[in-house]
Amino acid sequence: MTLAEWCVFGALLLYLSTIAAIKWIRFRRFDNARPRDPAFFDDALAQRALGAHQNGIETFPFFAFAVLLAEYRDSPQRLIDELAALFLIVRLAYVLTYLGNRPTLRSILWTIGFAINLGIFFMPALKRFLPV
């Protein structure tokens, strides 16, 4: 497996761990019979964790597809790996700023992550201009 493919797996684990962590921290209040109970997410930190989790679900398909498309179309693997690792780092920072209630920085990081995804996605179209 390539580094980029491991980063896809890492992105999956990141968005799953975002919500799992808040459920683990507040396990006495979490009712597994009602996992989507809005009352569980009544405090600010739990709401932000849920928001970060949901955003992870929203961004994951595009990232995974972009990586697989770039690899399938024989784009430079080293560049795919570097951008995928950078995306994962940006997503981790995004989650931390989401949990830390830093909305402006969070939006900047989201935009950077989206730009990285676009770069990976359009890499096959631009590969003749890229270093080997």
From TrEMBL:
Keyword Membrane belongs to the record: yes
Cited SUPFAM superfamilies: MAPEG domain-like
Domain of life: Bacteria
Protein name (Swiss-Prot/TrEMBL): MAPEG family protein
PANTHER family the record matches: BLR7753 PROTEIN (PTHR35371:SF1), INNER MEMBRANE PROTEIN (PTHR35371)
Key words of the record: Membrane, Transmembrane, Transmembrane helix
Residues that span the membrane, as ranges: 6-25, 107-126
Location of the protein in the cell: Membrane
InterPro entries associated with the record: MAPEG-like_dom_sf, Membr-assoc_MAPEG
Keyword Transmembrane: yes
